[in-house]
Each structure stands twice: as structure tokens, then as C-alpha cells.
Specification:
By secondary structure, this protein is mostly helical. It has eleven helices and four strands. A hairpin with a 5-residue loop joins strand 2 and strand 3.
Length: 321
């Protein structure tokens, strides 16, 4: 591969990696919030994200199609409804499944298994409902506005949807960062995350704060699901698994429990994926194809965690005895 070709491919590859990384980061925010408060890896978060994506696509296809509203307004409405449904689902899961385990001081493994059970239940529930209408895979409706090219370099461009994802993801991070660091709710969340017993003695309703944390995380997952459907053009009941796994990886890479860490981890993972997926097949004359990019990405992740187990922005924690 010539140096000139590498220079030509680098800008669009970095742009695609940034957008992919932002999508991972928006999903990772939900993982990192719940882990920061409860120390729970909520694997059901990936399916809550998937439900948000399906709801958004259904709304845009059957309710907002043909609407005189501008496409951006339609997308915003879809995001709001998807966020509301996902938030309600996350809150319901916390109330019905996780809270009883917390009250009974169940072993740490029990919530993890419960999360996996909820994840599988949601997959099958959505598959059953979608099968009733005879269409398993739901395509994102055609909205030419989001495909308008925006110039990136004299020879390359990115679609309008990339700018939309960049703006929404940035707003999500800034809003969540402000909420956690500057509001009473954020102070209560940080207090519960630090010491639940002490927070309770100080008059904080721990159950309410945990519930709100799940609701906020679920709402963010609904918005992220809408962006994912916009970017990749289709969703199905299994759309949450791989993005959810990679978002969890991004949260760990950035330092799980850290909001800026989730964003940094997502962007780093997205850039690694796209750089490897673009340049390794060219350098190896397609002996190693794009399909192997995940091996390199997760390999680099393992190396980073070997040398920095807390992740890029994580802080070491001490175990109370």
C-alpha cells in the first residue's frame, strides 16, 4: 500500500471510527451508571437498547411516515418515545427483578444471572411480537435527508446522519456529566455509589436513587438504539448483543463507573476497529479480512487491561473489610 493511498483512506476511516465509537459510548453510559451505583454488570442493558431501536423504527415507519414534520423533528420524536419505553423497561426490571435480590442480600452472582435471564426474555419477547406481524428484520425507513453528503476533505464526504450522531452523543455526555456533577440528583447518586448505608443514614432514599439511575440509563439506551438504527439501517431482536458487548468492552476499557471513561473507551474502540478493518486487509492483500477486526480490537483491549486494569480513566478502588 502506497503512502499516498494511506493518506487518502485515513480521514474517512477516522471519521467512521469516531461515529462508531460514539455509538458504543452512548450505549456504554448505561452500563457504567448502573455499575457505578450498584457494582452490577447489567447485561440486560443491551436488550433494553435493542427495544429502543425497534420502537423507534416502528414509530418512524408506521406513525411518522408521510408526516409533514421535518425529518429531524421525526427523529427527535422517535428518540423521545424510544427513550421513554426503554426507561420504563429498565425501571420495571429494577423494581421487579433486581430490588428483591438486593433486599434479600442475595449472592453477587444472582443479579448477574438475573440480568442474563432478562436479556434472553426480552430477545424472545420482541422476536415473538415481531413474528406476529411477519417481519423479523425491521429496516430503517428511507429518509434521504440523513444521507445528504457533507464535505470532509476535497475528495471525501460523510452523510448528514454522522453529524446528527456526533451532536446527539455529545449532548448526552454533556447532559449526563452535568446531572451527575452539578445537580442534587447527581450528588445523591454519587453518595449512594460511595456508600449505600451511609447515604441511607443521611436521609437519602436509596431505592429511589437506584430506580432513577436505571431509568436514566434506560432512557440513554433508547436514544442510542435510535442512533444505531439510523446508522446501520436495520434492527432485529438480536441487534443488541454485539453492540452491547462492545459497549461493555468500551466501558471497561475507559474505566467502568467513569462517565468520561465510557466516552473515551467507546471512541478508542471504534477507532481501533475501523483502522484495523481498513488497513489490515490492504496490508495483508486480503489474507486477513475485515471480519477479523474484532480479534485485534479485543486483543488490544486485553493488553491495555493487563498493564492498566482500571481502564484508561478508571481509579483503583479499595475493598472495605
Amino acid at each position: 500500500m502506497s503512502f499516498q493511498l494511506a493518506l487518502e483512506l485515513l480521514p474517512p476511516t477516522l471519521a467512521d471510527g469516531l461515529i462508531l465509537g460514539l455509538l458504543y459510548a452512548t450505549i456504554a453510559l448505561g452500563y457504567t451508571m448502573v455499575y457505578g451505583v450498584l457494582g452490577l454488570i447489567n447485561f440486560a442493558h443491551s436488550e433494553i437498547f435493542m427495544v429502543g431501536a425497534v420502537v423507534a423504527v416502528e414509530l418512524l415507519t408506521y406513525v411518522l411516515a408521510g408526516s409533514p414534520l421535518h425529518p429531524v423533528a421525526q427523529l427527535v420524536l422517535a428518540m423521545i418515545v424510544a427513550a421513554a419505553v426503554s426507561a420504563a423497561l429498565a425501571g420495571l426490571a429494577e423494581r421487579v427483578a433486581y430490588r428483591p435480590l438486593r433486599r434479600s442480600n442475595a449472592p453477587k452472582l444472582a443479579p448477574l444471572i438475573t440480568a442474563i435471564g432478562i436479556s434472553l426474555f426480552l430477545q424472545d419477547a420482541v422476536r415473538f411480537v415481531e413474528s406476529l406481524f411477519g417481519q423479523f428484520i425491521r429496516p430503517f425507513p428511507s429518509m434521504p435527508f440523513f444521507d445528504i453528503p457533507l464535505p470532509l476533505t476535497p475528495n471525501d464526504s460523510v452523510p448528514m446522519k454522522s453529524l446528527v450522531i456526533l451532536i446527539v452523543a455529545g449532548a448526552m455526555l454533556a447532559g449526563l456529566r452535568y446531572t451527575v456533577s452539578q445537580t442534587r440528583l447527581g450528588k445523591a447518586i454519587r453518595a449512594v455509589a460511595t456508600d449505600r448505608m451511609a447515604a441511607s443514614l443521611m436521609g437519602i432514599d436509596v431505592n429511589r436513587i437506584v430506580m432513577l439511575t436505571f431509568i436514566i440509563g434506560g432512557g440513554l439506551a433508547g436514544v442510542a438504539g435510535t442512533l444505531y438504527a439510523l446508522q446501520f439501517g436495520r434492527v432485529d431482536p438480536f441487534s443488541g448483543f454485539i453492540p452491547g458487548l462492545k459497549a461493555f468492552t468500551a466501558a471497561v476499557l475507559g474505566g467502568i463507573g467513569s462517565i468520561p471513561g465510557a466516552m473515551v473507551g467507546g471512541i478508542v474502540l471504534g477507532l481501533i476497529e475501523m483502522l484495523i478493518g481498513t488497513f489490515v486487509p490492504i496490508l495483508t492483500n486480503n489474507a486477513i479480512g475485515t471480519e477479523y477486526k474484532d480479534i485485534f480490537a479485543f486483543g488490544i483491549l486485553i493488553l491495555i487491561l493487563i498493564f492498566k486494569p482500571t481502564g484508561l480513566l478508571g481509579r483503583p478502588s479499595t475493598e472495605k473489610v
